[in-house]
Write a structure and sequence with these properties.
The complex is a heterodimer of chains A (227) and B (221). Chain A is an alpha/beta fold. Helices cover 31% and strands 23% of the residues of chain A. In chain A, α3 crosses α4. The chains are: A alpha/beta (227), B mainly alpha (221).
Chain lengths: 227, 221
């Protein structure tokens, strides 16, 4: 077996609520690679990211990390990734610093000193907001805080669901810098985005290419529904 | 371990800062017991005969409050994803949640029991036995509750559903909890009900987190 570094997917298929979202999906993302998932709304980008995080099981196909099937040691695999999804995991009554400290302690790798937290906040331009309760943050600031979690513990694989939503021009620049540094350090990034993000040499994977053709029965259903 | 403490501390901070959340269980406990005192009437003999049973039943119901929110908020805001992907095993996350629930609901009930005992003319001789039995029994209620909370995650009207799921499972705690008190009062061998309460706690400690974690994994998929 080859010990290809990075993440490798073969023939992935996923079904949600009786509907097949994609099938036969495959890719390879090594150290320093960035993979952009594109596709129309509802094409399964978020579901694919959850699947890649090991939170959902594929209907078919294999996923391997550093040459080993992910299912062999799911805990070790999940300990080497960050997933930043649509929900930002913020509680209105906790402050920015408390939220970040909780994430650092839960990640359990970095010492829970102020340093990691401060550096993470500074990297996304939030250093002045440490004592602000999360309910007072704007949506862009919430997004930036959610992204600061990426820096609370070093993990080689980052899975990002629409990381750029709500970010202003300056924050987009900060995000691009964070992503570039991660790639330069040998990290892998898989993200979905509708905004143009500055990601040099990124590979794009269009989920529409893996959408299964509608079967005659399904088409009949659509006709029946008046579509 | 530090992750677990961080989890418990966060739950406590969230509940205490929202003020009302922390006080609801104990207020319900006192009020419900008061209703019984009014309903049964001021006859001291009648009240004191049923006092320990009333205290146990109202404590059981009070411990149900807030169970439906135990994982719901974390599930809605994505924190549960973060916890599931963290190095902390999901079983330990459940254990931390149960511990926080006991500290916020079980422990205040214990502390309020002498007051409620006074309201219900509880025989003072049986108060230590009742508190000891509750100290042994209420952690089981929290642990069994996590299973119900995890199973109903995402369900609408989860609160009602949790009660229907959890209450039948809590009946043994009620049976042996009241048996412990009456055994002390009648000088029968009091060790047996306490041992059984301990056995229930040991079983809940071993099975509860495991079952709840399995339900959480299902909900996250």
């Amino acid at each position: 077996m080859d010990r290809a570094p990075g993440l490798r997917a073969e023939g992935l298929g996923l079904r949600r609520g009786g509907r097949r979202l994609f099938s036969g999906l495959g890719f390879e993302a090594g150290p320093g690679a960035a993979l952009i998932l594109s596709g129309p709304n509802g094409s399964g980008k978020s579901s694919l990211l959850r699947l890649l995080a090991g939170l959902a099981r594929p209907e078919a196909g294999n996923l391997s990390w550093q040459g080993r099937p992910v299912v062999d040691d799911l805990d070790a695999y999940q300990a080497s990734l960050h997933l930043v999804g649509h929900q930002d995991g913020l509680r209105p009554i906790l402050t920015v610093a408390e939220t970040l400290r909780f994430w650092i302690e839960v990640a359990g790798e970095a010492p829970a000193d102020g340093e990691t937290g401060t550096a993470a906040l500074a990297a996304l331009g939030l250093e002045a907001l440490g004592r602000t309760p999360c309910r007072l943050l704007s949506s862009g600031q919430r997004r930036r805080l959610a992204l600061a979690r990426l820096l609370t513990a070093p993990r080689p694989l980052w899975l990002l669901d629409e990381p750029a939503v709500g970010l202003d021009q300056a924050a987009l620049g900060l995000l691009a810098g964070v992503l570039a540094r991660h790639r330069a350090g040998g990290g892998t990034i898989i993200l979905s985005t509708h905004q143009p993000l500055d990601l040099p040499d990124a590979i794009t994977l269009d989920l529409a290419d893996f959408r299964p053709a509608l079967s005659p029965a399904a088409t009949a259903d659509l006709v029946w529904d008046g579509i | 371990m530090r992750g677990l403490i961080a989890l418990i501390r966060r739950d406590l901070a969230l509940a205490l800062r929202q003020g009302g959340d922390a006080a609801i269980a104990v207020l319900f406990f006192v009020l419900a017991a008061m209703l019984f005192a009014f309903g049964i009437g001021p006859e001291p003999g009648e009240l004191s005969r049923v006092a320990s049973g009333i205290i146990w039943v109202t404590a059981l119901l009070a411990a149900l409050l807030g169970l439906d929110r135990l994982f719901q908020a974390d599930w809605e805001d994505g924190t549960l994803d973060i916890l599931a992907l963290s190095p902390i095993p999901l079983e330990m996350v459940v254990l931390a949640k149960a511990a926080a629930h006991w500290l916020l609901a079980g422990l205040p009930l214990l502390l309020a029991t002498p007051l409620v005992g006074l309201l219900l003319h509880l025989d003072t001789a049986s108060l230590p036995a009742l508190i000891a039995a509750m100290a042994l029994g209420t952690p089981s209620l929290s642990l069994i509750g996590t299973v119900g909370a995890a199973l109903t995650l995402g369900a609408r009207r989860g609160g009602v559903l949790v009660s229907l799921l959890v209450l039948p499972l809590e009946i043994p705690v009620l049976i042996f909890g009241t048996a412990a008190v009456s055994a002390i009062l009648s000088d029968r061998a009091a060790a047996t009900p306490f041992l059984l309460l301990g056995a229930i706690l040991a079983g809940a400690l071993a099975l509860g987190p495991w079952a709840a974690a399995a339900a959480l994994r299902q909900a996250l998929e």
